Amino acid sequence: MKKGCPYGTHRVIEPKGVLPQPALKIDNDMEIYDNEILIDVQTLNVDSASFTQIKEQANGDIEEIKKIMKGIVAHRGKHQNPVTGSGGMLIGTVEKIGPALEGKTDLKVGDKIATLVSLSLTPLHIDEIKEVRVEKDQVDIVGKAILFESGIYAVLPSDMPENLVLSILDVAGAPAQTAKLVKPSDTVVMIGGTGKAGMLCLYEAKKRAGVTGKVIAVDINDEALKRVKDANLADITIKANAQDAVEMMQKIGEATDGKMADIVINIVNVPNTEMSSILITKDEGTVYFFSMATSFTKAALGAEGVGKDVTMVMGNGYTKGHAEITLDIMRESKELRKIFTDLYA
Q: Which domain holds residue 179?
């Protein structure tokens, strides 16, 4: 059996010398190396920015969505959207474990797992796309995937539906990072606060900011904002277009008496929201860009251009304990669990 690199560099076809995530093409042959895990894939959960772009490209046509997704995998060996650069995650059953991993993993053949690494670096082979659930960003397939030695995962818990677990673990890094960033008495603005990541982050922000803090949810969708308000996930809800930086600055200024936010968390799935995030953050505050539609160039040069001294944190899909924190939110909050079950499970 062939020996592999823990980070999967042995799978990179082009360009040589890079890791699988930034690679343009990787080897998706499903014969495993000695340190890989073969997964029989059940469902792909495509990240929101990527799936939104694919739906727009396909004009909402299901068969065209299937064609685009299969084309991406055929060309790249992984599901990495060439426009957004992002992927998603999957659930499936462990089919085979390389011998070099003996004693290094607690997994066994037959375990059902959710991968906690992006599809943008995961070798994937799709035989068939069985169902596309457009409103949930989920796609059921017949296919296989490879998890590298360095790849992280979560064994699916028995107390939650599988599709619910998949939908929340895909964004687990966001609420876990929120828990680290938000302090008591902070004013927190959640841009895109009504989606999966947004609602989880709102819950954590409310918990961490406490009764002396203020949590504001911003979105463009009236129905989604009402859902957040009814669940008491935010102290204030504001309807605004995050791509309109002036409108955002005015509305958040009104809501905070001109003080702006200590922490701004951006979780939208559309581009050109960097300046809104920066302008509504007070000097020496923090902007957390979890959105995969974020442009580092626009954020960095934009902050400089308006003379804003803010700390900008680029979203990391992984932080220690992120899966446990996110699953615990579902166990703690009956209201949020019902919302997620109705919308995503």
A: 173-344
Domains in the chain, number:
2
| Alpha-carbon radius of gyration of the chain | 20
Between helix 334-344 and helix 162-169 the angle, nearest 10°, is 100
The DSSP code for 136 is G
Neighbours of 112 (CB within 10 A): 16
Record the pTM.
0.82
The tens digit of pLDDT for each residue in 93-147 reads: 999 999 999 889 999 999 999 999 999 999 999 999 999 999 889 999 999 999 9
Tokens 């004013």, located at residue = 187
Peptide linkage before 15 cis (omega within 30 of 0): yes
**Three-state SS at 253:** helix
Q: Give the CATH number of the domain where residue 296 resides.
A: 3.40.50.720
C-alpha angle 172-128-73 in degrees, rounded to nearest 5: 60
Residues 98 and 239 in one domain: no
Q: At what angle do helices 173-181 and 196-209 cross, to 10 degrees?
A: 20
Which DSSP symbol is given to 207?
Answer: H
